[in-house]
């Protein structure tokens, strides 16, 4: 489809765009069209090319949308709902976009062709989305970590991804390996208990512990420590700074400072070693050479870490981050791990069998950087889908859950023209199965008719085109992916449909907007 609204946005005469609904909804369609063909197991990939001719092949809705050079402000909003979906659930971004586009298309039709006032449409969407979410929730089932449905959710989520079958095996084993250790405050939180990293030089594998993509501070340090006593140091490891020297410093002053530096460094290292630690994770911004040398001489292992890494390293090893040298005398600062070692070849450091909360690392491989990125993203989608399923329950996939509540949504009785607004929501509910089937080469509409007339939980088998019970087929989605996608789509549809003009404004930074208000 050719469309001038894609890429560049030019408000028309005198910077006012009178036909905003038309233009905005076109912009939405164009953006939605770029990702809708990726939906489902037979979805196709997109080749992204930037101005420097770098390429990346992707099937992931949010990755594609974020890399688009769209400037149309409404197109940006679509990208934002995909991002929000990604943050809230971590899967279902294409679903959210397809539903949003369908709602806007249908809403525009009601407003333009049937002259329904936008506020009525918006109210219809609000009630419709709320009702649809509670209907889907009612049909959801609970699952546990050992249920086969968990495998099926992960497999469904990864079915459209590059090498999805192998990845789902990897994800399933990793999640079962951490098991209920991933429960925090009564809910599964795999973000805390699993780490997914990508490497082009290591095979796919699951490590019982943490893998840091780092090297030890100095190659002369030992490359392994058994029975590691671990310290996480945040304190200053540069006791005397070069910047203290003045241009006119005298030779004696420099000499005094130098010997001060050496003696202070010794004191620090002695205090560090007096704790009994033999493995040091250092997040201090600068490390004095003498300190480094002394650590090498004392044959301990030290690794630089970033402040982001402190939290999970501390949780996993039980080490309490030490902020000040004075704290070194506290008894409870060290953590433990059976084994810490560096694979020099692969440039990673393994910390295994530590004494804190359990963690596993999934290493995702790839023959090239781009395949490793795509497989890495897919694995994270799988982990997120599993988490959502365990915490909130599951529903039949392939768009079946959405399709079978349409009639019930229609039963909702709203006053006056708001009733018509419900059609916006039912159109969106139908769009998911239709898109999945269209992408698989079927006549989506025809298949939808068959599926609609079938009992709840039935949808179309993507391989044969026949009706099938989605539970039995093992095509299962997390409930949260559906409700979040519906809500996000509803939000953006309401905003877009309410706008009747796009106006060019002077200054819209938050500060100046709040000025105007005053
Ligand atoms: P999203 O970005 O929205 O997660 P995906 O490309 O991952 O998009 O597709 C997810 C959709 O594909 C879900 O609705 C899921 O139920 C559906 N799906 C996955 N496997 C099958 C299958 N074998 N048959 C039908 N639908 C499937
Ligand atoms: Mg998905």
Can you characterise this structure?
The longest helix is centred in the middle third of the chain and has 24 residues, at 251-274. Helix 6 (148-158) packs across helix 7. Mean pLDDT is 90; it is low at 1-7. The chain is built from 19 helices and 19 strands. 49% of the residues lie in helices and 15% in strands. With 518 residues, the protein is an alpha+beta fold. The strands form 7 sheets. The protein has a 6-stranded mixed sheet with strand order 8-13-12-9-10-11, with helices on one face. Adenosine-5'-diphosphate binds at residues 38-41, 43, 61, 91-95, 156, 159-160, 397-399, 432, 436, 462, 475, 477.
Radius of gyration: 28 Å
Low-confidence stretches: 1-7
Strand order of the largest sheet: 8-13-12-9-10-11
Q: Gap between N and C termini, in Å?
A: 45 Å
Fraction in helix:
40-55%
Taken as a percent bin, the fraction of beta residues is: 15-25%
SSE topology sketch:
Layout: E1 16-17, H1 20-36, E2 46-49, E3 55-58, H2 61-67, H3 73-88, H4 93-113, H5 118-139, H6 148-158, H7 164-178, E4 183-184, E5 187-188, H8 190-193, E6 194-198, E7 205-207, E8 209-212, E9 224-233, H9 251-274, E10 279-282, H10 289-297, E11 301-304, H11 307-317, E12 335-343, E13 348-354, E14 360-364, H12 369-392, E15 394-396, H13 400-403, H14 406-410, H15 418-439, H16 444-452, E16 458-460, E17 467-469, H17 470-473, E18 476-478, H18 479-498, E19 502-503, H19 510-517
Parallel strand pairs: 6-14, 9-10, 10-11
Antiparallel strand pairs: 1-19, 2-3, 4-5, 7-14, 8-13, 9-12, 12-13, 15-18, 16-17
Helix pairs in contact: 1-3, 1-4, 2-3, 3-4, 3-18, 4-5, 4-15, 4-18, 5-15, 5-18, 6-7, 6-12, 7-12, 9-10, 15-16
């Amino acid at each position: 489809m050719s469309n001038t609204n894609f890429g560049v946005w030019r408000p028309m005469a005198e910077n006012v765009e009178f036909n905003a609904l038309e233009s905005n909804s076109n912009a939405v369609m164009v953006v939605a069209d770029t990702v809708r063909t990726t939906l489902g197991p037979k979805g196709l990939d997109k080749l992204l090319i930037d101005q420097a001719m770098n390429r990346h092949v992707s099937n992931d809705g949010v990755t594609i949308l974020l890399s688009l050079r769209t400037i149309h402000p409404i197109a940006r909003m679509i990208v934002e709902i995909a991002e929000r979906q990604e943050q809230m659930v971590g899967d279902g971004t294409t679903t959210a976009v397809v539903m949003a586009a369908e709602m806007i298309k249908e809403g525009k039709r009601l407003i333009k062709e049937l002259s329904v006032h936008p506020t009525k449409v918006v109210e219809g969407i609000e009630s419709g989305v709320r009702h649809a979410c509670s209907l889907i929730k009612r049909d959801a089932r609970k699952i546990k970590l050992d249920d086969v449905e968990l495998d099926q959710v992960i497999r469904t989520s990864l079915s459209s991804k590059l090498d999805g079958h192998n990845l789902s095996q990897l994800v399933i084993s990793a999640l079962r390996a951490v098991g209920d250790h991933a429960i925090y405050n009564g809910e599964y939180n795999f973000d805390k208990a699993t780490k997914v990293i990508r490497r082009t030089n290591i095979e796919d594998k699951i490590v019982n512990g943490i893998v840091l993509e780092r090297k030890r501070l100095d190659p002369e340090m030992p490359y392994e420590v058994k029975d590691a006593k671990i310290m996480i140091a945040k304190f200053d490891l540069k006791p005397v700074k070069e910047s203290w020297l003045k241009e006119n410093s005298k030779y004696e002053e420099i000499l005094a400072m130098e010997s001060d530096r050496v003696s202070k460094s010794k004191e620090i290292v002695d205090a560090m070693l007096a704790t009994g630690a033999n493995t040091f994770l250092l997040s201090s911004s600068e490390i004095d050479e003498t300190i480094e040398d002394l650590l090498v001489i004392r044959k301990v292992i030290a690794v630089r870490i970033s402040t982001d890494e402190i939290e999970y390293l501390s949780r996993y090893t039980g080490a309490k981050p030490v902020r000040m040298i004075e704290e070194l005398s506290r008894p409870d600062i060290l953590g433990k791990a059976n084994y810490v070692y560096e694979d020099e070849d692969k440039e990673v450091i393994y910390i295994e069998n530590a004494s804190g909360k359990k963690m596993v690392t999934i290493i995702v491989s790839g023959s090239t950087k781009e395949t490793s990125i795509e497989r890495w993203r897919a694995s994270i989608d799988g982990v997120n889908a599993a988490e959502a399923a365990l915490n909130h329950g599951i529903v039949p996939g392939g768009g079946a859950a959405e399709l079978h509540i349409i009639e019930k949504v229609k039963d909702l009785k709203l006053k006056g023209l708001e009733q018509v607004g419900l059609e916006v929501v039912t159109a969106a509910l139908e769009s998911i199965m239709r898109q999945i089937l269209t992408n698989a080469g079927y006549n989506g509409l025809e298949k939808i008719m068959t599926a609609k007339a079938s009992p709840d939980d039935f949808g179309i088998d993507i391989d044969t085109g026949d009706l099938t019970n989605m539970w039995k087929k093992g095509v299962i989605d997390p409930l949260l992916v559906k409700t979040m996608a519906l809500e996000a789509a509803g939000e953006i549809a309401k905003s877009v449909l309410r706008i009747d003009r796009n106006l060019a404004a002077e200054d819209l930074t938050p500060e100046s907007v709040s000025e105007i208000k005053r």
